[in-house]
Amino acid sequence: MLQKSTGVFRASIPLASLSEDRNIRVHEPWVPLPRCRSAFSCRDADIPITGFFPVSQAQRNTVRGRIRYQIAPRLWVAGGVQFDSGLPFEFQCDSSLTLDQCIANQVQTYGQQVVDRVNFDRGRINPTFLLSASTGADVYKSEKLKMRFQVDGQNLTNVVDVIDFGGLFSGNAIGPLRSFALRLTADF
Predict the structure, then answer these.
(1) How many distinct structural domains can be found in the chain?
(2) Contact of 66 with 76, CB cutoff 8 Å
(3) Has residue 162 been placed in a domain?
(4) DSSP designation for 39
(5) What is the pLDDT of residue 50?
(6) What is the pTM of this model?
(7) 10 Å Cβ neighbour count for 91?
(8) Which domain holds residue 130?
(9) Residue 109 belongs to what H/E stretch?
(10) Residue 66 within any structural domain of the chain
(11) pLDDT tens, residue by residue, 19-56
């Protein structure tokens, strides 16, 4: 089954032991102007009533997918993938410095790994591709108690995930590096 809703596609495979979820977003970098809904006339105020304007934080493409397979009644594995095309950013360089000098200053401030993920010529953060994996098992199951053990691995590609660079309110936003988690949960 495949359905589309405002640019989001979701799919599921009707097999008992396999489930899948896909999320694909394609963003338009232009949005329509807001409508004039006030007591005065938009034409009198010289406000455009039709047209489009560019979105400053448009990540054009986002693809996320996750698949889970039930190996046995008490054991499952799952994997995930994520691709982000990268946000635009505005970089202000001091007019007395060259672009190479400005980038060197950014390397001193944020480090080479972060600056390598930013494309100053295009004004966009480089695309990111991340992988994740999980496995879990029901360790104990009775009428009153259910215990599950789970192992999760995030960002297995170990990419420095620069989400935003030099944002006005947030500064730099960096996603976590490769991480692993062990979890034991009990429901009673």
Answers:
(1) 1
(2) no
(3) yes
(4) S
(5) 61
(6) 0.66
(7) 13
(8) 74-187
(9) helix 99-110
(10) no
(11) 666 666 665 555 566 666 555 555 555 555 566 555 55
